[in-house]
Amino acid sequence: MTTRDKRGSLDRSLVAPTREIVKLERRLFLRQGLSLGALTMLSGCDVTDADSVQKVLWSLSRWNDRVQAAIFDPNKLAPTYPESAITTPFPFNAFYAESEAPHVETAGYKLELGGLIRDKTPWTLEKLYALPQISQITRHICVEGWSAIGKWTGANFKTFLEAVGADTTAKYVGFKCADDYYTSIDMQTALHPQTQLTFKIADQVLSASYGFPLKLRVPTKLGFKNPKHIVAIFVTNDNPGGYWEDQGYNWFSGS
Ligand SMILES: Nc1nc2c(c(=O)[nH]1)N[C@H]1C(S)=C(S)[C@@H](COP(=O)(O)O)O[C@H]1N2
Ligand SMILES: [Mo]
Prior knowledge:
Blueprint: H1 12-15, H2 19-32, H3 36-43, H4 50-71, E1 110-115, E2 123-124, H5 125-129, E3 133-142, E4 146-156, H6 157-163, E5 172-177, E6 182-186, H7 187-190, E7 196-201, E8 204-205, E9 215-217, E10 230-236
Parallel strand pairs: 1-10
Antiparallel strand pairs: 1-2, 3-4, 4-7, 5-6, 5-10, 7-8, 7-9
């Protein structure tokens, strides 16, 4: 890394915290009351040394994951709401504009399975739709500062994991999406009674923007841990990270 860019100005990455650090610091400050200044004193590292600050913040965030996992109650349900509380229209969000949402074709769609799963035969939509379905009306909370109540319908994720013979003693379930988004959740959350393999929003089949043909609804986690347009699911003991998680958002991110 050079200290000066082509125009001769100072490389900001050496003098100012990176975007990731700023985001992590905001979370630490909100959740733990820890500021970047306090961190400097605790760690003895120079805040202008982006690499060492980054390392300390990442290890604090991993510690935060463990604390959140330890206090997560697998039987505690996220609040549910009446139909009258549903937000209409439900907001759209992704790392791109709505017009760029992927259009997954029904014909030929198969959900790929990988990792610690006994039967990795891909699932057609027909087979997925044959699973018993349930609805939930819960609140989706996005880190970008909005929340909305929606109705989602689909299969209990635990039922699906059992049907494919997933190793439920493994640590993580990872998701790959048609738009190159990816995320992962802890097994306790995957087995939570409200974690749903979702086919419908507001009683309608998910549209292209809202995750067709399949999304994971996780009301105990922040919005970015609810992958849309899922094309592959895998079970693993190595943390697969995620699109936002790898850029500094806390991995556990319970809501
Ligand atoms: N495949 C995919 N899933 C995704 C995202 C994305 O960009 N791509 N964005 C996440 C974020 S940050 C939010 S808030 C929700 C938004 O879901 P919605 O469009 O149904 O409101 O999707 C999550 N899942
Ligand atoms: Mo989000």
